[in-house]
Amino acid sequence: xxxxxxxxxxxxxxDPELVAFVTLSLLPAWCRLAAVEGMRAREPAAQxxxxxxxxxxxxxxxAIRAIETRARASCARAAAAALTSIAWTDARYPAALAAIVDxxxxxxxxxxxxxxxxxxxxxxxxxxxxxxARSVATTLAADLASRGVVVVSGLARGVxxxxxxxxxxxxxxxxxxxxxxxxxVYPPEHDTLADAIARRGLVVSELVPGxxxxxxxxxxxNRIISGLSRAVVVIEAHEKSxxxxxxxxxxxxxxxxxxxxxxxxxxxxxxxHALLRDGAKIVESADDILEELGMCTGVHARRExxxxxxxxxxxxxxxxxxxxxxxxxxAERSGLLPSRLLPRLMELELAGAIARVGGGRFVRIDRPC
Length: 369
Description:
Radius of gyration: 21 Å
Shape: globular
Number of domains: 3
Number of helices: 15
Structural class: alpha/beta
Distance between the termini: 71 Å
Order of helices and strands: HHHHEHEEHEHEHEHEHEHEHHEHHEE
Strand order of the largest sheet: 1-2-6-5-4-3-7-8-9
């Protein structure tokens, strides 16, 4: 008599805190700012869920239970697909994204989350891109990636996919931010490209696994593209291009906006030319981008000159060793605007002078001489 195979072990229950953060991410959009206020105040996620439920659904407890059930199912689906979830309190949550007005409670990722730790620059543009635009995107991305910059884009047709491929062709790292679940690639013909990005860099979404690519999700993901990045470079955008939404988000978030000039006869680039008229820096090469970021000597050269030593910097005086401080606290002590403070904090992090902890907070690291 053949022995029955032993049953597969049941998957472990998801972390209750993660389930609570996922529940927050599934609440209606008009709850988002109230949720973020609680997150910044370090209120436990489950407590935020209860407070919002009592405020908006006092007589419908089944409504929140249904959302919590969906949240647990999303965590189970992510675990089965070997996806990584990064909640707001996770030390791996990108500090730059944590600083925007409406950061996602949870990021779902596929690939190497260490990609968040480098200098990130977004390259975005037209889906119906001309050969010129695709060539420029590929060249800029390759040049940036070869100097250690991580290229961020949206995996769309045209400029986005050209930028991702340029970074990969240079043996660099790139991040794709999706307007769908991280396990639902759109457009579908970019499935192979998404796999290549995950092997070298990271595929990211704020939407729970399995979410289809619906039109409202793409403007939402644009704020994440810009929020992750030090700068946004726009290539060939017409007047109603989604790339201009990303540029507007970048300006609101205090990021640098740059644009590549194009052919004035076709009308393809009127949106990017409008950015240039409004003061965006002209980009002709990767050096223009690095110069705008104060990195004209190159990322690798800057890392070698620092040698891991702690540079003298008055911002460090605002941080107490071993005591975590968020961006608002550091800005208040230093007198600097958060949008201008964040790039300097990133440089100090690369130099090993500070470290990020959960919830977009920083802690100073004192090393013996």
